């Protein structure tokens, strides 16, 4: 595990998902080897609409040292994936498995069963292999880093200790600076270290790879040249000896008295035999050794070996960048395939950035990206009502002030919707229910095979698992009207109906249920409506809002957004880093930072609600700067 990953775990940045009971029993490492499925077996089971996966789940449990957790294997596919995730989520050796599990259990309702089955049969093993490859790459990188730091420290006669090898580049440079701060022999090293401490990551790596040694050589040469007690010949001999020492340090060749006394050509031959086959240093050493000119030998020792080493570093960095970009494109492709929009957006941003941005994404950033919001909407607001969906699948609603008592509404729920005096829930089996009136009113069954429920005023909308949007108007027993097909999101507000098609195109109609559709925007991942506003969140994370008629002009509100919320006079955005911002009034009014570490933002009337990543629901009432009140904890899904 790299220090950076360890630090992330310490800060708790790698936790995400649902709160479930922690699995603590582990078997010895020898129990880790589980036979994988054959391709034919996996394909056959994946095609079976209702396979019995007990044996397959046991193979996964054995793989991760949980073979005695028989009760876990008996759980439903999604609960099994969540249980495995709970066990592994804070284990730095299984970051890829954690991400794959999150993608499976957080899939859309119509996809979650297939996604979890795919994870159990295929993806968990592929993710395990990626974790193994990542661990090896991190080990190789740590070895290369240790070698580079040890060679750099040796140039000032320092043996790199654990503190120098295990910390960040900045910490290493700080320790070097401390070593030379009071040492008059190294003024140029001190100045170079001081500048590197404040430099970019690329500048710090350059200092470790070459800058420290170059400054140390110049300080040594300066000391020799200024030594009035030495003759010219003695100075020349001392400079030659120092050149060999720095040359040896640069390529990690152990410095001995015998090595420093060698004739130049013999020294070059030792360098040749020490360095990796095919490296630029070896090529340059071979070329110098083949020459019979002492000036060529001296030039190699003084400058040639350092230039060749710089070329080797450049080649290695270019190769590493190419590999990081390949891995990022692979992550992007996988994220697009499974519909992980947050991860896909982060991958695209990394690919558009520098080599360091891509490296940071591959080694750390991808594991910080939160899963996309799942169908369950844990926090809901309307009028004087607040609703929450707790991690155990229960829907609770309170009415009146923010401190009133909760009333449990329904069990086994994956979506909760509030509008006026109506409460709607979507049960785990896909059945939509709505009640009207008081919190104790009776439920009326609305529709089956539903993946999303929407309410607004006297309208009720459902989006079926087949992607058909239907809306009814009037009483709970009114007739359904088919509005649109191939839909992935349905939105209701006032007398407006909006749909987001599976092709990413947002359409809105205004007026009666049979009004004409107006195409609003393409490349959309979320559509938001208010009585007089339309908002879209593009697949690139840009939030745009229009006010007035359906053909009004768009105004870009914010970028780097993962959720957009609207009311008639407020706009809210949840940024990719989990910051909730709200503005009030016109489309160009200033933003107010409301809260950080947020996974859901809700606006309704003069209330603002946030659900933070620790599962705490907070609501404020009144102005944008009003005080927050914690209304519920253990709200799910949680991080």
Supply the key terms.
639 residues, alpha+beta, Methylamine Dehydrogenase, Chain H, four-stranded antiparallel beta sheet, 23% strand, disordered N terminus
General description of the model:
The structure is a single chain. The chain is an alpha+beta fold. Among the domains are: 227-372, no CATH class; 391-632, Methylamine Dehydrogenase, Chain H (7 Propeller), CATH 2.130.10.30. It is 42% helix and 23% strand. It is built from 18 helices and 28 strands. The protein has a 4-stranded antiparallel beta sheet, with no helix packed on it. Strands 5-6-7-8 form a 4-stranded antiparallel beta sheet, with no helix packed on it. A hairpin with a 4-residue loop joins strand 6 (422-427) and strand 7 (432-436). It is elongated and about 105 Å long. The chain starts with a helix and ends in a 7-residue tail after the last strand.
Read across the widest sheet, the strand sequence of neighbours is 1-2-3-4
How would you sum up the major sheet? 4 strands, antiparallel
Task: Quickly name the level 1 CATH class of the domain at 391-632.
Answer: Mainly Beta
Second CATH tier, the architecture of the domain at 391-632: 7 Propeller
Derived structural class: alpha+beta
CATH superfamily of the domain at 391-632: Regulator of chromosome condensation 1/beta-lactamase-inhibitor protein II
Oligomerization state: single chain
Instruction: Provide the gyration radius in Å.
Output: 32 Å
* Approximate helicity band: 40-55%
Q: How many strands appear in the DSSP assignment? A: 28
Large-scale geometry = elongated
List segments where confidence is low: pLDDT < 50 over at least 5 consecutive residues. Answer: 1-47
Report the mean per-residue pLDDT as an integer: 85
CA-CA gap between termini: 22 Å
Instruction: Count the DSSP helices.
Output: 18
Residue share in β-strands: 15-25%
């Amino acid at each position: 595990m790299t220090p950076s990953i360890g630090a992330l775990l310490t800060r708790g940045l790698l936790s995400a998902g649902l709160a479930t009971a922690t699995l603590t029993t582990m078997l010895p490492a020898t129990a880790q080897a589980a036979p994988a499925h054959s391709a034919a077996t996996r394909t056959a089971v994946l095609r079976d609409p209702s396979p019995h996966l007990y044996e397959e789940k046991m193979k996964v449990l054995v793989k991760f040292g949980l073979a005695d957790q028989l009760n876990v294997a008996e759980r439903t596919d999604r609960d099994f994936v969540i249980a495995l995730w709970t066990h592994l989520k804070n284990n730095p050796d299984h970051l890829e498995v954690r991400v794959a599990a999150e993608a499976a259990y957080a899939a859309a309702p119509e996809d979650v069963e297939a996604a979890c089955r795919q994870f159990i049969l295929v993806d968990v093993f592929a993710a395990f292999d990626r974790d193994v490859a990542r661990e090896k790459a991190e080990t190789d990188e740590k070895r290369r880093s240790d070698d580079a730091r040890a060679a750099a420290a040796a140039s000032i006669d320092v043996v790199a200790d654990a503190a120098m090898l295990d910390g960040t580049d900045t910490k290493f440079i700080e320790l070097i600076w401390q070593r030379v701060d009071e040492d008059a022999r190294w003024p140029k090293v001190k100045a170079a270290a001081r500048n590197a401490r404040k430099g970019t990551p690329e500048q710090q790596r350059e200092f470790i790879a070459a800058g420290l040694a170059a400054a140390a050589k110049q300080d040594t040469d300066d000391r020799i040249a200024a030594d009035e007690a030495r003759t010219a010949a003695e100075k020349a001999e001392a400079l030659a000896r120092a050149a060999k020492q720095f040359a040896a340090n640069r390529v990690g060749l152990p410095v001995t008295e015998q090595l420093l006394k060698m004739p130049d050509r013999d020294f070059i031959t030792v360098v040749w035999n020490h360095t990796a086959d095919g490296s630029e240093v070896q090529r340059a050493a071979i070329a110098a050794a083949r020459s019979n000119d002492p000036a060529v030998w001296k030039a190699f020792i003084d400058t040639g070996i350092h230039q060749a080493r710089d070329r080797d570093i450049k080649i290695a960095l270019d190769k590493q960048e190419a590999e990081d970009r390949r891995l990022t494109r692979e992550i992007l492709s996988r994220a697009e395939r499974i519909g992980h929009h947050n991860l896909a957006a982060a991958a695209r941003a990394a690919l558009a950035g520098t080599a360091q941005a891509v490296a940071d994404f591959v080694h750390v950033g991808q594991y910080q990206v939160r899963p996309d919001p799942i169908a369950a909407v844990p926090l809901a607001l309307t009028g004087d009502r607040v609703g929450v969906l707790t991690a155990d699948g229960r829907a609770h609603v309170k009415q009146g002030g923010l401190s009133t008592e909760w009333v449990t509404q329904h069990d086994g729920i994956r979506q909760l919707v509030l509008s006026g005096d109506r409460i709607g829930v979507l049960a785990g089996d896909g059945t939509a229910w709505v009640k009207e009136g008081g919190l104790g009113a009776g439920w009326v069954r609305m529709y089956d095979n539903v993946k999303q429920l929407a309410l607004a005023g006297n309208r009720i909308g459902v989006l079926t698992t087949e992607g058909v949007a239907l809306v009814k108007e009037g009483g709970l027993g009114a007739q359904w009207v088919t509005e649109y097909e191939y839909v992935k999101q349905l939105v209701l507000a006032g007398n407006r109906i909006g749909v987001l098609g599976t092709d990413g195109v947002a359409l809105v109609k205004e007026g009666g249920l049979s009004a004409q559709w107006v195409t609003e925007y393409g490349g959309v991942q979320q559509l938001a409506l208010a009585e007089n506003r339309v908002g879209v969140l593009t697949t690139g994370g840009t939030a745009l809002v229009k006010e007035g008629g359906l053909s009004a002009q768009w105004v870009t509100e914010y970028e780097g957004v993962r959720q957009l919320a609207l009311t008639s006079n407020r706009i809210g955005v949840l940024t990719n880093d989990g910051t909730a911002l709200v503005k009030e009034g016109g489309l160009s009014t200033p933003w107010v930072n409301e809260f950080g570490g947020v996974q859901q933002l809700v606006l309704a009337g003069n209330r603002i609600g946030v659900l933070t990543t620790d599962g705490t629901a907070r609501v404020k009432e009144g102005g944008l700067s009003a005080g927050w009140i914690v209304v519920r904890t253990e709200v799910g899904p949680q991080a």
